[in-house]
Write a structure and sequence with these properties.
The chain is an alpha/beta fold. The chain is built from seven helices and five strands, in the order αβαβαββααααβ. Strands 1-2-3-4-5 form a five-stranded mixed beta sheet, sandwiched between helices. Helix 2 (about 45-60) packs parallel to helix 5 (about 145-165) and helix 4 packs antiparallel against helix 5 (about 145-165).
Length: about 260
């Protein structure tokens, strides 16, 4: 009876290993930094994403994989992301400095999966903010290319800042509404205090000059709510040479759109 139980446990263990191997075999092979298996990212934006990822790797060693798939099948997106991350080995071996951006079209599920070595730069909270600010709003509008471009650019910017380098490219990231309103609120109150203070000490004589300056300076205000972070063109050559054997840290952020 004891031998029968031992054999049964052994068979179950072997079947479990075989099932894991089968799942691994079903996972696709990477096409590059961008693996658009669902064909939702326009070519020009795919090229931009590839350039950003290439330059980031050349300057910091970190790797970003941007992936779209048609469906998760029976998998949770968190499980699929970890399996794909581990199979591809995103990031450098021993440094685990990789990030995976995954979008499952049918289920409308997304995941930003972060390697061990990047968790200090992009903790779960920051990954969630990037998801909410750059990815989900664009995906809800059906603009998959822009959503993925903004997300990869935002991740690259965070990593580059940590390494003290600058990533070039022609991507300007939109500022969050909260930061814009906060800046305008504080700045507006401070400006009003100065305005009234100058009127009082000059007994109103400065008022015409302040009005004239306000009229002339009106054109310099923020017109579109766009932030910087990337400028110019990229002079980096080469291309995708494969991922380096990194491992997932299990952190990141998931969501739906």
């Amino acid at each position: 009876m004891k031998n029968f139980k031992n054999k049964s446990l052994l068979i179950l263990f072997v079947l479990f290993l075989l099932s894991l191997n089968l799942v691994a075999q079903q996972l696709p092979q990477p096409r590059g930094y961008v693996s658009d298996f669902a064909n939702v990212i326009p070519e020009n934006q795919e090229r931009q994403i590839n350039r950003i990822c290439l330059e980031l790797q050349q300057k910091t060693g970190a790797q970003i994989a941007d992936v779209t798939i048609q469906t998760l099948g029976d998998n949770y997106i968190e499980d699929y992301a970890v399996k794909l991350f581990e199979k591809w080995g995103i990031g450098e071996k021993g440094k685990d400095n990789g990030v995976l951006v995954l979008n499952a079209i049918k289920e409308k599920k997304i995941r930003i999966e972060v390697g061990y070595g990047i968790e200090g730069i992009i903790p779960d909270g920051k990954a969630g903010r990037i998801r909410d600010q750059y990815l989900i709003p664009q995906l809800k509008k059906g603009d998959f290319g822009t959503g993925h471009l903004y997300t990869v650019a935002a991740i690259a910017k965070e990593i580059a800042r940590e390494y003290g380098v600058k990533i070039t490219g022609n991507v300007q990231l939109p500022r969050s509404r909260s930061s814009r309103s906060k800046g305008k609120g504080v700045g507006g109150v401070f400006s009003m205090l100065i305005f009234f203070f100058l009127i009082i000490i000059t007994r109103g004589r400065i008022l015409p000059w302040l009005l004239l300056g306000s009229m002339l300076g009106g054109g310099s205000r923020d017109r579109g709510g766009w932030g910087g972070g990337f400028s110019g063109g990229s002079g980096f050559g080469g291309g995708f040479g494969g991922f380096g054997g990194g491992m997932s840290g299990g952190g990141g952020a998931s969501g739906s759109y």
